[in-house]
Amino acid sequence: MNTAQDHSEDVTEEPIPAMQQILDNPFLLLFIGIAMPTVLYIVWGVMEIVGIPVAK
Questions:
Q1: Phi first, then psi: what are they for 52, rounded to 5°?
Q2: d(CA 54, CA 56)
Q3: pLDDT (tens digit, 9 = 90+) per residue, 3-45?
Q4: Domain map of the chain by residue range?
Q5: Which residues contact 23 (CB under 8 A, 6 or more apart)?
Q6: Who wins on pLDDT, 2 or 54?
Q7: pTM for the predicted model, two decimal places
Q8: Distance CA 28, CA 18 (A)
């Protein structure tokens, strides 16, 4: 009478959620950690340049 084996047969294999796969990948987190601030600073810089009034 092995209850551990009986219990393991009852457990269904659920797919791993996408967010967990992202958070489990250190290289993807590194890329996101470098790419997101870079993109945000570029967008911020473009907005600042566009906001400068044109000289007459």
A1: -75, 130
A2: 7
A3: 655 565 667 789 999 999 989 999 999 999 999 999 999 999 9
A4: 17-56
A5: 29
A6: 54
A7: 0.60
A8: 13
In degrees, rounded to 5, the angle at the alpha carbon of residue 31 between the alpha carbons of residues 30 and 34 is 85
Residue type, 55: A
How far apart, in whole angstroms, are the C-alpha atoms of residue 32 and residue 24?
A: 13
Residue 27 carries which side chain, given as an amino acid letter? F
Residue 12 sits at the vertex; the CA angle it makes with 9 and 14, to the nearest 5 degrees, is: 150
* Number of residues in the chain: 56
Residue 28: partners with Cβ closer than 8 Å, 6 or more residues away: 22
Token pair of 30, please? 């590194």
Determine the straight-line distance between the first and last CA of the chain, rounded to whole angstroms.
Answer: 91
